[in-house]
Amino acid sequence: MRQLVVTGTSVISLPWRLETKPTKKNVKVRTLGKDKIKQTEVEKCIYNAPDITVEDMVDVFLDPCATDPNTSSMMRRMTKTKGEVLRLIESEVYDMATRDDIIRAGTSYRVTSSDRETYDYLVGYGSSAGDWHMGDKVEVWEFWGTVQLSDVELSDVVVTFIDNTILRCETNPYWGGKPFIVGTYTPMVNSPYGMGALEPALGLLHTMNIISNNRLDAVELAVNPMWLAVNDGTIDLNDVYSEPGRIIPVGDLNSIQPLIQNNQFQGVSLTEESTLETKIDKATGTGAFVGSGAGRSGERVTATEVQAVRDAGGNRLSNIHAHIEDTALMPFLQRAYTYAQQFVVEPEVVTARGNTSDEWWYARVGLDQLSYDFKIKARGAQHVADREFELRMRTEWIATITAVPEMAQLVDWAEVAKDVTARFTGEEAGRFIMDEPAAPPPDPNAQAEPPMPTDPNQMAIAGAQQVGGQEMGRAVETQVMADQQFADQQAQEQGLI
Fold first, then answer.
1. Could you tell me the pTM of the whole model?
2. What pLDDT digit, counting tens, does each position of 199-243 carry?
3. 126-140 burial, b if ≥16 CB within 10 A, otherwise e?
């Protein structure tokens, strides 16, 4: 990111590196019906992942006619010693060059004859015959892309060469494209290179540096001023300089006098420098809302003003963040996953942080898990602004619904609570929201409740007991029995019974 902001363009290389080393291992061997422990030597994997490196933009050259640098041709410059190149030739990594080609190759740094003995002792090289040395450095170039020849076109190849000598030419060994990701800070039209944050302010920075240097020179002249000295033969001009407690012998007090300087411009330079800093902040988009500038502490600031300042900073940089995510971060993650699909053969244990800070998850990942493709979504830049907007709209909707009881009865508030919790915390709502409790199992020792009475008189007695207790229930029961006896007596007199 630092190189991206300064130069406007940055390149990350992520070639796959597999490193192993021989190690001892105890194995169980069964001999004559008995198990014995035997030591054996095996190759242990030390590193099996992308070797991520930020390339120096001085050593990377992009196709100037390309519109998308991540899919176009490019060149990379590497510096190696002749000894390193010769070892790669002997191991057949570079299979299109000979030892004599490397010896005759031009050097960017040559070990002198006086330093050869010391160099050989420190590095371990043997002495080299002739006018070359194993420590001489050469520039090795790599070309990634399409090569146009007179009668044939080589598409998606890697050509390694020194001067006019080709060391290796092969098809790109990576499935997902060349192992380089090119990112830009601010894209430029019809150019693979971008514009950095400092480029619009280069003139202002140069002017501010000149003013600062002039002010420092004036301070130095004020401490150590210039002198007017009479060359009368009694003064050694080499002894005329400022020093605490120094005595300069002179024949006349007027023989040495300080040269008066005008230092009134220092206050003007400070004001001009402050103005330039403000212009640089505006040009680069790094004001008080994203930098370390002092806040407004001398007056009251409302919440609306604070929100406006924060939104201004986010809006100024959100497009840049989104551009870096789309053109650099997402291709980087997708290409790294593609390389894992290509080179990971044996299952490996992957560690991931769990739900808490002291919880870790371990998963075994192999060919079956890596066979699935997925889409990556960045949760940054514009996502932050979108999340705040969605939360604000959701809380306003909840306030509107709760104001109308008839509408509130139609809402599943459990799902609303889960949705709002997930949006606020960015985690699973199940960590904070409890599920609805299940009904407790029936107690086998509990007495069964008596069935509800169906007779009107019994219902009246039960209602009285619930309202006034047992006394009211007995009173109502007595009254019901008296009414029943009176009704039976009237029926007998009328001959109905």
1. 0.62
2. 888 888 888 888 888 888 887 877 778 888 887 777 777 877 777
3. eebeeebbbbbbbbb
- Measured distance CA(186)–CA(216) in Å, rounded: 35
Question: 144: pLDDT confidence band, cut at 50, 70 and 90?
Answer: very high
CA angle 103, 107, 112 (to 5 degrees): 90
Contact in structure between 290 and 208 (CB atoms under 8 Å): no
Average pLDDT over residues 105-130: 56
3-state secondary structure of 22: strand
Q: Is the dihedral of CA 352, 355, 356, 359 positive or negative?
A: negative
Beta bridge partners of 21: 44
Residue indicated by tokens 């090795």: 140
pLDDT band at 452 (very low <50, low <70, confident <90, very high): low
The amino acid present at 286, given as its one-letter code, is T
pLDDT attached to residue 441: 65
- Can you tell me the distance from the alpha carbon of 469 to that of 460, in angstroms, rounded to the nearest whole number? 13
Q: Is residue 383 within 8 Å of 371, Cβ to Cβ? A: no
Sign of CA dihedral 156, 162, 163, 168: negative
- Alpha carbon distance 204, 283 (integer Å): 9
Q: Which two tokens stand for residue 488?
A: 């039976």
Rg (alpha carbons) of the chain, rounded to whole number: 43
Phi, psi of 74 (to 5 degrees): -155, 165
Are 369 and 215 in contact, with CB atoms under 8 Å apart? no
Domain definitions of the chain by residue range: 53-195, 199-294+303-309, 382-431, 454-497
